[in-house]
Each structure stands twice: as C-alpha cells, then as structure tokens.
Design a protein that fits this description.
This protein is of the alpha+beta class and 374 residues long. The chain contains ten helices and 14 strands.
Length: 374
Amino acid sequence: MTGRASNGMLAPTTPRAGEPLLSRVERVRRREGRVRTEHVTLAHGGGGKAMRDLIDDVILGELGQRDHGELEDQARTPLEELSSRGDRLAFTTDSYVVTPLFFPGGDIGRLAVNGTVNDLAVSGAIPLHLSLGLILEEGLPIDDLRRVMRSVRAAAEIARVRIVTGDTKVVARGAADKLFINTSGVGVMRRGISPSIRGACPGDYVITNGFIGDHGAAILAARGELALETTVESDTRALGGLIGELVGACEVHAMRDATRGGLATVLNELALGSDVHVYVDERAVPVRDEVRGMCELLGLDPLYLANEGNVVFVVAEDSVTRAMELLRAHPHGAGAAVLGRVSASPEGMVTLRTQLGGERVLDMLVGDQLPRIC
C-alpha cells in the first residue's frame, strides 16, 4: 500500500546501493508514525504526513505489513506464479456499504474479504490477491478503523489470500456513512474446470452447503430498530477450500453464491442463464428456526434473505451423492441439502413445491427486502 493515493505491492526493505545504514533506519522510523487523533480527519486524506501516518500506523500496521518496505503504486506478480496454478485469470470487484459496520458474526472488513474471495471461488478459480479500497468519512473513530483492519488481516489469512494493493480516501462528514470498502480480487482458473451460469442441464441436481438467511437476519437484528433478540450470526466465511474440494471430485456445472436477493434470486439467475426449469422443494430448504420465526414476525421470506457463506451448486446426477458426502464432511457444509432438480421446461422458470404441498412460481423481487446488507 502506498504513501500516496494508492497502495502498491509490499516489497522487502533492502538498503539502496551505497546508502548509509542510518538513512535506512530513518526511512523505517518515518514509516512508523503514530496517529494520535481519535477520529479520522480530512487531513488524513490530503496526501501529506497525516495520510502517511494513517496508512503506516493504522492500515499497514494492523494488516501486519508496516515493515514490508518500499511501497509502489501497483502490485506486481510474476506470470510464472500464475501460470503454474492454472490457465486463465479470474478477476472480480465488489463494494461493501453494510450498516452497521459491526454485527453478530462479523464486520465490514471480514465481509469484504470473504465476499470477494467467494466471487472468485464460485468461478472455479483459486483466489490469490486482493486490493483494498477505503472510503473513510471524517469523524470515523480511529479505533473502529483499526478493528476493521485487524478483521481484514484475519480473514485474508484464513482465506489464504494477500492484500497486495489499495487506496485510501477521506470525505467530509455526511458525505458517506462511516466506512465503505471496495475489494477487487485476482485468482487463477483451474485447468479443465469452467462452471458457468449457463451450465445447468436437465437432470442435474441443485444443492447448497448450509442454512439460508443467516446474514440478512443478523444484520436486521443488529440495526436495533425493531428490538429483536436473536442468537443468529452472519454466515460470512471464505469458501475457497470447500469449493476446491468439490470441483476436484465432482462434475459441477454451475455455482453461484447466494448474497443479495438470497436463494430465490440465484435460482432464477440459473434458470434464466441456462434456459432451464429449476424445481425446488421448500421443505428441503435449510432454514434455522430463529430465522424462520423472525421472517414470520416481520412478513419477510427467508428465500430472499441475503447470505454470505452459502453457495448454490448445480451438479451432474452421477455426482450428487459424492458432492453431498464432501459437503457434510466439511465444517462449512454441515447443513448441506439437496434442494431440487433441473428440467428442460418451462425454460427460465423456478417452481417451488410449498410446505403445504402446493406449487407456485418463485420469481425475483423487484427490489431487496433489506437494503445495505453487504
């Protein structure tokens, strides 16, 4: 991460040719400037010493990268490293504006890392590198920023990805809502594996790795507007390891993480993208009692609640047994379930067999039940 507008690749510190050791020590000491204010100020985005101190002390410091040395304006990765792991590059980007910043089971930092890692993983890619773009509102408590950066660091370590570049901007009070994060991710596509939204085929099974609606329910409760009491936590987690095991052993035709719009939206995207009919049994959909009760109280449908650790897989018929075995053996797949099947027609439609035994069309919502959940 750089000391100017952007934050570049972290290279080891080495003395320049003929450089006195004292000069090198002074450069290291300069990078260890302490932020003494309690809140972010506009000066922290001005490109001067205050900004350098914020980056060195709060951002790089909490990411564990303060002493990595000279900072460039870009990340650099040897092509050999990429080509040794796959044959194509995967690239994605996402922005996070969740409110509140901290919620049961996670926070905006953990969410940003896991969300982008999962977007890469569901393409069949091995996630490798992330960028980290921060939009800070004047007045944001420095301690909150430190806490988020520590969470980013922990999530990246668990997901086995590196934060290699980034950017920091500060806007005036009222021009944002505390903290927004953008993360872009780079990964390498595994050879011979190309799951696609267009890949679902008649006869395939539709499965998921666990309970739905946890993230949306946790965010709703954390906002405190409805005085709800619940033990539900966000399911935000990195699923690269789980997905890697599945695609390595099973014939997976399509994958999509069920974030905004929930399970219902993903099923419709699959049906439309592949020109197929998806038939789902509502009784097979795993929903926690707490989430179901909250939805009944508020008139919400858990099928449309956001998830941050839930993936919908479309697998070939002869792979479904093995896929379920692998999912249920993994910590992030203990609640795995077979949701339904794919048929040829009616094309582009999702049909739901209800709890009462009837059938109805499961369509997309016009908007979102809960805004700003990620």
